[in-house]
Amino acid sequence: MESEQLFHRGYYRNSYNSITSASSDEELLDGAGVIMDFQTSEDDNLLDGDASIGTHYTMTNGGNINSSTHLLDLLDEPIPGVGTYDDFHTIDWVREKCKDRERHRRINSKKKESAWEMTKSLYDAWSGWLVVTLTGLASGALAGLIDIAADWMTDLKEGICLSALWFNHEQCCWGSNETTFEERDKCPQWKTWAELIIGQAEGPGSYIMNYIMYIFWALSFAFLAVSLVKVFAPYACGSGIPEIKTILSGFIIRGYLGKWTLMIKTITLVLAVASGLSLGKEGPLVHVACCCGNIFSYLFPKYSTNEAKKREVLSAASAAGVSVAFGAPIGGVLFSLEEVSYYFPLKTLWRSFFAALVAAFVLRSINPFGNSRLVLFYVEYHTPWYLFELLPFILLGVFGGLWGAFFIRANIAWCRRRKSTKFGKYPVLEVIVVAAITAVIAFPNPYTRLNTSELIKELFTDCGPLESSSLCDYRNDMNASKIVDDIPDRPAGTGVYSAIWQLCLALIFKIIMTVFTFGIKVPSGLFIPSMAIGAIAGRIVGIAVEQLAYYHHDWFIFKEWCEVGADCITPGLYAMVGAAACLGGVTRMTVSLVVIVFELTGGLEYIVPLMAAVMTSKWVGDAFGREGIYEAHIRLNGYPFLDAKEEFTHTTLAADVMRPRRSDPPLAVLTQDNMTVEDIENLINETSYNGFPVIMSKESQRLVGFALRRDLTIAIESARKKQEGIVGSSRVCFAQHTPSLPAESPRPLKLRSILDMSPFTVTDHTPMEIVVDIFRKLGLRQCLVTHNGRLLGIITKKDILRHMAQTANQDPASIMFN
Q1: Which helix (H) or strand (E) holds 390?
Q2: Class for domain 133-366, per CATH?
Q3: Which superfamily is assigned to 387-637 in CATH?
Q4: CA of 721: how far to CAs of 165, 489, 544, in Å?
Q5: Where are the transmembrane segments (predicted)?
Q6: Which of 119, 4, 100 is nearest to 310 (CA)?
Q7: Taking a C-beta distance cutoff of 8 angstroms, is the pair 768, 653 a contact?
Q8: Using H for helix, E for strand and C for coil, what is the string for 461-489?
């Protein structure tokens, strides 16, 4: 209610029907709080932003086009361009909400006039459901396409199917009658590169040729991916989730959700995954889905002209992205709510649920994995877990938290080094080097050579009678007294011990390479590599506990529930818990992560072990730093993101943070009726501020309102073109009534219509804790500081971020966009 009152207080009387948003579909992200341009150094003082003559300028929470005073102004028609936002700036949530209310009232007032108006009203009401339906359909279709293409290109590194070139290895051997149970992946239709090139299927020559071709294809895919990204869509690199979070908070990054980014990210994501780099496609699928949501929102005026409403579509799109990435519709909705969304009303919850449902339905219809499931590694365990097992589950949680803390620090340190050294100037070379090292080391180890999703599937899978993996090479104990389940716990064979050593090497390899891979200039997700690391550690722990229970079943911890010959321990379950713990340690997700993992695996019975491991990993990770990897990258890139999870407990006041400081020049202001057009143009040319407080006079300093640089520039240019008598010496008046002027004076220019008459203000004694809350909850870009009604200064979102960095003993300059 408090925020509603604030909305009404300043905006109820204002009409925005002359404000149009002339945004193209490249203007993708508009976000949360204040105008922020990080490309100038002077934007600290007033409204942050780049604003030189000839560039775009941003609006604050005013931009009031008052219909009652509009007729009195010389500008007697809507001004094109007012209401749009510039790149690397922030939207005004309050103003956007008021625009939407005005639009809604206008539609409701007309719907009874005719059947056509009623149809338009119904179309407007249903447009939200239509746009999320289209987003879900596109997200599901693209995810299915990416899954199929990535599987085929991954197998292309090892060989090709002669009978049907478009089949991957598994599909190629489906129809063969010449496969054996032990070697079900070998069939005459599938030829390795060694067989095709030198005619040898076995031997050192064959191994070396396959090794060379594996490296060749890995480097080719990686080079093609980074070249496409560099040339056509630089924003297509990375996972995209840090930027999506920033965009949903109100920030604008033009082109980040545009058509080119969508197309290049879809293509290069397939290439990056197929190259064998230690990355996943799940995070980038959220970016792909948000691109779809952004593009489809331009088909509906309700969303194309309102940046706050567009963010509701993007929240639903991010839910659809996780839904198709993991086959977890409910987890996707919770992920959007917990991890990425800044503003998540109940209506958005329903639409996110529906978008996730549609996307999952489309993906299931495509059936990209051929197993009638939404995911590759769906598993079903038949053995219940026991209370004692909580101890190793919690230990896996500790490992996940330690891994998360290590990864965040190491990856951020490497990314910062990349930004600050010459190495960052050669992104193509970096990708080629990382891909080459990965391919050379990965090929000899069967567990690192595998596609990461296939590796997780093998680690999750329980050992049944149909499994031929070396992880299931147990010795059959013919003396077991009782068979409780199909496959009782058995002593490990040589294959299991060999697999454990290979998994230990794979674990070290994955840990090191993931640190250097996340952040390179190709699409790179973090979910799958983190899950793979946890699954490897979990499987090793699971086998150890299983063997301990087998050889020491008379210990008191096993005696009560683990009989000889019973199937007590499920190593695959430990892999699943370890995967969740490591992903939780890196991202610090909790509720959504548990739901994603049990939807992913079908392990509904194992929610308690998952919850225990995920919470432990979060607590351990938080002990080393409260930031997850996405928040750390947001801070590294200097995006103006006020994290709601971050507490501000210092006792500073608004006067301590506002600008100008004692050593700064005085605040640049406009007076109500004492300045000429030339004075204002000179002020605009001499400063880079995005807006100016308007006061009654220099002597009184009484605050009248706030005018944006962009609005001033557009209004003056429009008046010069359309009104006679407007010259440089014309008096500019922001008051309702024009003061009396000498008869020979040129015609005055009234600009009251562009003045925000109710800017947000706080007193100089307002605690910063309250100011920070106001900025977070209302999405402000700036607020003015007064004392007894006299203007003292201004606080922008950037000032708050700088102050929070100082209170945390960080270098404030380190958070600014570079």
Answers
A1: helix 390-420
A2: mainly alpha
A3: Clc chloride channel (1.10.3080.10)
A4: 65, 87, 81
A5: 126-150, 214-236, 256-277, 284-301, 313-337, 386-408, 428-447, 499-520, 532-553, 573-598
A6: 100
A7: yes
A8: CCCCCCCCCHHHCECCCCCCCCCCCCCCC
